[in-house]
Amino acid sequence: MNRYQGRVVAITGAAQGLGLAMATRFAAEGATLALADVNEQTLTDAAGTITDAHDAKLRTDRVDVTDSAQVNAWIDGVTTDLGRIDVLVNNAGILRDNRVEDITDDDWHAVIDVSLTGGFHCARAAFAPMKRQGYGRIVSFSSMSWRGNFGQTNYVAAKAGIVGMTRTLALEGARHGITANAIAPGLIETPMLASMNGPARDKLTNKIPMRHTGRPQDIAEAAAFLASDAASYITGIVLDVDGGISIGSSIR
Ligand SMILES: NC(=O)c1ccc[n+]([C@@H]2O[C@H](COP(=O)([O-])OP(=O)(O)OC[C@H]3O[C@@H](n4cnc5c(N)ncnc54)[C@H](O)[C@@H]3O)[C@@H](O)[C@H]2O)c1
């Protein structure tokens, strides 16, 4: 399939994990990529693996999504250099887990700033060019945790915020051909998940009705669908991609 031929797809946090898997998936379908990450070296290496595998046109930028000036300059650079921005994937996110009484001011702000404010900075910057085009797809990363999760007050607040932001972007974008949707991944095998300790991870895996963690490709498939023309009448939703864990109890 070449669904993304002629489309410009911008992805934050693209150096590894889900961002890299999505970049690879979009490249395989002919997209021109604008990849951003705070970690420049890993991003350069990731871009190399994508261009080795696919004949993709891409640009990479070191962007810290918490800094609105950097985000504005990035989106300006993308639209000037590549002519348009069709898809924005708000993927960058971090964890600083702790029980509520042990979350420091720094842990709170760091998680909110990257995982929520960063997505807002990018959506705000992309909205004007998408409106001018009369076309846009914004896919933002929530998490299965958005409904509440022990030890993640900061992360849950950010990921629930993404849901509210997405629903509002959907309302404001609808008459301009812009859709906004969120993906709520379950436990997916990325460097972020590798940071979780063994017992906590095993306990969670046992709660997944499918009894196994997800692959980054599972998320990339969902993103490639939500950002496609096939999903043009879908907006404001949260798509759970989680092996069923959000359904509830799977005691057997
Ligand atoms: N892996 C999972 O199981 C899982 C589950 C639910 C939700 N998510 C969400 O999916 C998204 C991707 O997760 P992942 O597992 O690939 O994480 P990851 O840690 O493997 O990758 C995150 C990327 O974001 C980049 N990043 C961090 N801070 C940044 C900043 N300020 N500006 C720009 N880039 C920044 C990192 O350098 C890294 O490349 C995140 O929003 C995460 O919360 C992941």
UniProtKB/TrEMBL annotation:
Q: Which superkingdom is the protein from?
A: Bacteria
Q: Which PROSITE patterns match?
A: ADH_SHORT
The signal peptide, as residue positions, is 1-27
Q: Which Gene3D superfamilies does the record match to this protein?
A: NAD(P)-binding Rossmann-like Domain
Which SMART domains would you find in this protein's record? Answer: PKS_KR (SM00822)
Q: Residue limits of the Ketoreductase domain?
A: 7-186
Q: Which UniProt keywords apply?
A: Signal
What Pfam families does the record tag this protein with?
Answer: adh_short_C2
Name the family: Belongs to the short-chain dehydrogenases/reductases (SDR) family.
Which NCBIfam families does the record associate with it? PRK12826.1-2 (NF009466)
This chain belongs to the protein called 3-oxoacyl-ACP reductase
